[in-house]
Amino acid sequence: MFRIPDAPAIQQAFEQLDRFYADPKLMELDRQRRFAMFDQMAINAAEAKGKADSVVFLLRKRFQIVPQDVQTKLMSMKDIEQLDHLIE
């Protein structure tokens, strides 16, 4: 079994965690923060997909055919700034 060291800082941290989990208001704020974080992640993923679709569209307009491996690579990109650079 894992033994927690008796260091005062560690004990204090556990006491703060206990107080946090005992406070319904703090728990609700944490729940809301987590939902907001997941919402932002979904928004970022949707934005990246839209930009990747735009890059593929522009490549098709220019070259007619975009190899599948290039499309796959573009669709897996998550860096919005890099996708913006490709669009430019």
What does the model show?
The protein is an all-alpha fold. It has one domain. It has 4 helices and no strands. The chain has helices at residues 8-22, 24-63, 68-76, 80-87. The radius of gyration is 23 Å and the shape is elongated. The model has no long low-confidence stretch (mean pLDDT 90).
Tell me the span between the first and last alpha carbons. Answer: 57 Å
Strand content: under 5%
**Helix-residue proportion:** over 70%
- Note the overall shape: elongated
Number of helices, counting only DSSP H or I runs of 4 residues or more: 4
Order of helices and strands: HHHH
Q: What is the assembly state of the chains in this entry? A: single chain
Radius of gyration, taken over Cα atoms and rounded to an integer in Å: 23 Å
Mean pLDDT score: 90
How many strands appear in the DSSP assignment?
0
Stretches with pLDDT under 50, minimum 5 residues: none
Structural class: mainly alpha
Q: Sheet with the most strands? A: none
Count of discrete structural domains = 1
Helix and strand arrangement:
Blueprint: H1 8-22, H2 24-63, H3 68-76, H4 80-87
Features:
88 residues, mainly alpha, 82% helix
What is this structure, in a nutshell?
With 88 residues, the chain is an all-alpha fold. The protein has four helices and no strands.
